Amino acid sequence: MTLSSPLTVLIADDDLVLRAGLASTLQRGSGLTVVETASGAEAVKIAEETGPDAALVGARIPALATSGTIKDLTAVAPVVLLAFPGDGEAVREAVAQGAAASLVYGSFTPPELAEAVRAVARSGAGQDEVDAIIGVRGPAAAAALRADSGLTEREAQVLRLVAGGMSNAMIADHLVVSEKTVKNHINHIYAKLHVRNRTQAIERWRAAETVGV
């Protein structure tokens, strides 16, 4: 692999919707090649056959903690665990088996995820570096908008994903909610920010990011 060569990312998650959403997120405009599987054992087999540059593994794959999947995968490529709030035990076990870092669903935008994958694959970035990529502007911008406009934590999260380039359908898949729920959140965001459309809402987010840096 050279700095200019395209990266291949293996995604392993038994949730088809989440897996498809991640694949779409990484392939859209990022230049990343994606290989998918629903099984931890299959992930190891595919990794050994294809030699991916990084692997994204869902924390809730059955028997992940006892199967040795993470340890086997790290022998081939750096692993980033994708978890939900409450998956702390799975995260700790994955780190113990050699995972480079973990990310929580809903805490990152598509560009941030792609950047984190590149950092892990190209330079061996760990948790601190990944946290820096994901959290440089987002939390500060969200806090500023919540204080200024009364956005809820979920509304700020949705706005961040909108600003990251996600469609309503992608956000729904990403947060595991209905598209109608996402639309409701966005309408509330418009009302609270006193904006008329997506472009104006994103402008408010970008302004908050700049202030927060």
Automatic annotation (TrEMBL):
Swiss-Prot/TrEMBL keywords: DNA-binding
InterPro entries: CheY-like_superfamily, Sig_transdc_resp-reg_C-effctor, Sig_transdc_resp-reg_receiver, Tscrpt_reg_LuxR_C, WalR-like, WH-like_DNA-bd_sf
The protein's name in its UniProt record: Response regulator transcription factor
Record has DNA-binding as a keyword: yes
Occurrences of domain Response regulatory (ranges): 8-121
Record-linked SUPFAM superfamilies: C-terminal effector domain of the bipartite response regulators, CheY-like
Record domain HTH luxR-type: where: 144-209
PANTHER family the record matches: TWO-COMPONENT RESPONSE REGULATOR (PTHR43214)
